Amino acid sequence: MPGGGSNEGDGSSASASSEVSTPVAVEVGSLQPFQVKGDPYSVSQRWRKWKRAFQLYVLGKGITNDSQKRGLLLHTAGLDVQEVYFTLVPDGAETNYAETFKVLDDYFIPKANVPFERHLFRQISQSSEETIDQFACRLRQRAASCEFGEREDECIRDQLIDKCYSAK
C-alpha cells in the first residue's frame, strides 16, 4: 500500500505512459476552405496554392496517419470540395490520402494546352512597378505550365532580356 500511495501522489508512471502513447497537439492556426467558385481560369492555380498550404498545415500539425490526413483534407477543403469529391468517388469507396489528392488534382487541374501556355508566357512583360526579381518570379510561375523541361531557365532568361524595362 505505501508503494501504491507514492505512485498515486507523484503521478510519474501515469504521465510517462500517456506521453509516449498520446501525440502532442500543436496549435498552428487554421486554413480557409478552398473556394471552388470563382474565376474558372484560375482554379488550377488556386488549387495548387491551397494544396501546398494544406500540406504545410498537416506538417505543422504533426499528422502522419494517412486516414487522419485524408479526413482533415476533406474537412478543411470545405463542403464544396466534399461535394465534388463524393460525386467523383462513390460513398463507401475507400481511398487513401494520396489517391484522394489525385482525384481532386485531376478535377481541379485540367490538362494544360502547352502551346497556349507558351503563348501566354511570351506575352508577359515587366510592369513599371515591378522589380526584376518580381518579374523573374512571375515568369517562373507561368513557366511551370509550359513544359519547357531542361530549357526552362534558358526560356526565362530570354524572356527577361526581351521584355525587361531595365537597361541593365
DSSP summary: helix tally: 9
Number of strands: 0
Mean pLDDT rating: 82
Q: Considering DSSP H and I runs of 4 or more, what fraction of the residues is helical?
A: 55-70%
Using only CA atoms, what is the Rg? 24 Å
Alpha-beta content class:
mainly alpha
**Shape descriptor:** elongated
Query: How big a fraction of the residues is strand?
Result: under 5%
Distance between the termini: 84 Å
Report the major sheet.
none
Order of helices and strands: HHHHHHHHH
Q: What structural keywords apply?
A:
disordered N terminus; 9 helices; mainly alpha; 63% helix; 168 residues; elongated
Q: How would you explain this protein's 3D organization?
A:
Mean pLDDT is 82; it is low at 1-22. α8 (132-143) crosses α9. The chain has helices at residues 2-10, 12-21, 43-61, 66-77, 79-88, 97-108, 114-123, 132-143, 152-163. The N and C termini lie far apart (84 Å). It has 168 residues and is mainly α. The chain is elongated, with a radius of gyration of 24 Å. The protein has nine helices and no strands.
